[in-house]
Amino acid sequence: GEALEVNREVNCVIDFIHGCEAQLQKLKKQKEKGLLYGIPISIKDHINCKGHVSSGGMVKFLGQVKEEDSVIVQVLKHQGGIPFVKTNIPQTMINYDCSNLIFGQTLNPLNHQKSPGGSSGGEGALIAGGGSILGIGSDVAGSIRLPSSFCGLCGLKPTGWGRPWASAQTWLAASACPPASAGLTGMLGPMARDVDSLALCMKALLCQEMFQLDPTVPPIPFDEEVRLRGNPMSPSAQQQS
């Protein structure tokens, strides 16, 4: 309901993912609930979800319904998360605004005269407006970080594991657009209203299911201790590095 209200206000949702209630009932019957059990998660347009389109903001992709979930969606579901909407992007995603000729302009919920940023602008607008508590965006040169900044959120572009743009059909979730440069590493990452939510999402994603489904991701679990220390490097440490 909240997502609908936010969408009416700022036009940030492009599709509602079907089967959420059935998925929740299935999860309730499982003994192991997962780190993201019951959490509704919004998903950026170009991330593949079974039975839905990944448009990239371009008409040519509207007829291509995806036959299976991308790896990140599979892992989110494995951890008990419930992907429930797909969110708007700028056409081709190579833009710091959030508008295309299919779904129109997304507005910033904090100020309708301003842009939510891009390219994960629909995510930024929906989360900042209160319609989602956790979302998955993607970032090459700021596409998570810009909307997070514009909308007053927290966002993380993870380290570019493996080779640049490796596993586009899995960790990068079948982007509708080719990489702009082989020297740029595009990554999916979480967006939320606080750092703890980002940490929980990363801890959930860096699990055995991810490592098995995507061999380009090094099998290194999320290090909670490093995050909790959070101290700036000392001058001596900086010199050594």
TrEMBL record:
Record's keyword annotation contains Signal: no
What biological process terms from GO does the record include? fatty acid catabolic process
Mark the transmembrane ranges.
Answer: none
Q: Which GO molecular function annotations are given, in alphabetical order?
A: amidase activity; fatty acid amide hydrolase activity
Residue ranges of every copy of the Amidase domain listed in the record: 5-219
Is Hydrolase there in the keyword field?
yes
Task: State the source organism's domain of life.
Answer: Eukaryota
Keywords carried by this UniProt record: Hydrolase
Regarding protein family, the annotation reads:
Belongs to the amidase family.
What is the protein named? Answer: VDHAP protein
The gene it comes from is: Vdhap_1
